[in-house]
Specification:
It is built from 16 helices and 13 strands. With 481 residues, it is of the alpha+beta class. Helix 1 packs antiparallel against helix 7, helix 9 packs across helix 12 and helix 11 packs across helix 14. The longest helix is centred in the middle third of the chain and has 32 residues. It holds the Pfam family AAA_lid_11.
Length: 481
């Protein structure tokens, strides 16, 4: 017989701070006579709580859900103690040192994603500075640093905090709570779906097999024909086979050709297996179960893209096919649907190569992407730009957009994603760094913001400090499904 124990961090700022301060003694609070010690200890505890609580908001909180734990807090507090012991009272606290150690070493040592690292460093820079030691400082409205050196005073203050926290305490917009509720509900529904029986129906209704048979027939009817290799070669020859953009197009067509053939093969075999003409293999049975549950069969997923349901996935297949066939038949589109590419990073790289070749003396290493947020929709673009590309179909998460100025603004209540107008992306030859007044916004292929789904970055103008949008978790998504 065995008994299992789990030790999970408490939920909410009040519960987390309470747990932290219940493990602290009055002697520990009296460790240093320096006036900076109690507020610095509380600030580290607050940071520890916030970095843990942001995980529940999914990619809006952290691109990767890191397992920050008590060891990180203990190491950070030990560093603060050492720093205060060695501090020159005339010079005071070295804030850059504290920010570096917390953001790059103690907590930052766990962080592997560049944009997560930027977020963590932003937290340290916003909170660990001279204003922390001023009376009346607030991390957020009604979240102050208690002005006391007594442990009981801290416990009483913490007990008076709200039980439920506004997402803005963590730097996020209030809409983030909707995202959290959706993610929680989806996790429960996925669990329920996974425990459903997989046998065929027996209550007089349609069986799983008959439902999937009808679905397969319908999908086969709409499935595009495979590409004719001779016609593709002729079209590319006409457009210039060695142009970077056309090489990219060839690679994309090769990949969608593979998907179309696999889908056709699976659907045809499923129909035959359901009719009893061939044996229902384990692979076909797995595909049948997935299609019945409106999920994408694993064999298709391996060679294609992720999506919320089979219906969304199949619609995207048809839309991708339309973009590629139109490009081959009528030439380069005026505006590109970037979501419809297998390799959107390759698309932007091909554009950079094309611009570099057009300018004598330019080196690819020093050519960087620039962008302009337009006011137009894709239907308004009557011709392609002389240089660079117009892209459409991106969604903004974590912020809203002022269409007139192209600047970031706060999200509208209950609006999680905002569709972007056409964005003009071009390239220039420069070795200058980024403008610190602009917010560098990452682009991801899907809502799951991992390195594998990272496409690139574009810059937004903003009336706020760019740090504000870093804390908001603002990003562009090619697809929200």
């Amino acid at each position: 017989m065995a008994i299992k124990f789990t030790n999970e961090p408490p939920q909410g700022i009040r519960a987390s701070l309470k747990r932290t301060y219940q493990s602290i003694t009055q002697d520990f609070l009296d460790y240093s006579s320096q006036p900076q010690w109690p507020p610095l200890l509380y600030a580290v505890a607050f940071l520890h709580t916030v970095v843990q609580e942001r995980r529940k908001f999914g990619p809006l909180g952290w691109n990767i859900p890191y397992e920050f734990n008590q060891a990180d807090f203990a190491a950070s507090v030990q560093f603060i103690q050492n720093h205060l012991d060695e501090m020159d009272p005339k010079k005071g606290v070295s804030w850059p040192t504290i920010c570096y150690m917390l953001g790059e070493v103690m907590y930052g040592g766990r962080v592997t994603d560049d944009f997560d690292k930027r977020l963590l460093i932003t937290f340290t820079q916003v909170w660990f500075c001279d204003v922390l030691l001023r009376p009346g400082f607030e991390f957020y409205k009604n979240y102050k640093v208690p002005q006391t050196r007594n442990l009981s005073g801290y416990i009483d203050y913490i007990n008076g905090l709200q039980a439920a926290d506004n997402p803005e305490v963590f730097g996020l917009h209030a809409n983030a709570d909707i995202t959290y509720q959706i993610n929680s509900a989806k996790a429960i529904l996925d669990t329920i779906l996974n425990v459903q029986p997989k046998e065929g129906g027996g209550g007089g209704g349609e069986t799983r097999e008959s439902v999937v048979h009808c679905l397969a027939e319908d999908m086969l009817e709409k499935l595009p024909e495979p590409y004719n290799n001779f016609e593709v070669r002729e079209a590319l020859q006409r457009m210039g086979p060695l142009q970077p953009m056309n090489i990219f197009l060839r690679q994309e067509i090769d990949r969608i050709q593979k998907v179309i053939k696999e889908v056709k093969s699976t659907l045809s075999d499923l129909k035959l297996a359901i009719d009893g003409t061939i044996v229902m293999s384990q692979n076909l049975r797995t595909s049948l179960d997935a299609m019945y549950d409106a999920r994408i069969p694993e064999r298709w997923l391996k060679i294609s893209w992720e999506s919320a349901t089979l219906g969304f996935w199949y619609t995207e297949l048809l839309e991708r096919d339309v973009q590629f066939r139109t490009w081959i038949q009528t030439g380069r589109p005026n505006a590109f649907w970037m979501t419809g590419f297998f390799n959107p990073q390759g698309f932007l790289t091909a554009m950079r190569q094309e611009v570099t070749r057009a300018h004598k003396g330019w080196a690819l290493d020093s050519v960087v992407l620039q962008n302009l947020i337009t006011r137009y929709n894709k239907e308004d673009m009557k011709e392609p730009p002389a240089e660079g590309v117009y892209v459409h179909g991106l969604f903004l998460e974590g912020a809203g957009l002022d269409r007139r100025s192209g600047k970031l603004i706060e999200s509208k209540p209950k609006v999680l994603y905002e569709q972007m107008p056409v964005i003009y992306i071009y390239a220039i030859n420069t070795t200058a760094g980024k403008d610190p007044k602009l917010y560098e916004c990452p682009i991801y292929r899907k809502p799951q913001r991992t390195d594998l789904k990272y496409v690139g970055s574009i810059d937004f103008e903003t009336d706020h400090n760019p740090r504000h949008w870093t804390l908001r978790g603002v990003a562009l998504l090619c697809d929200i499904k």
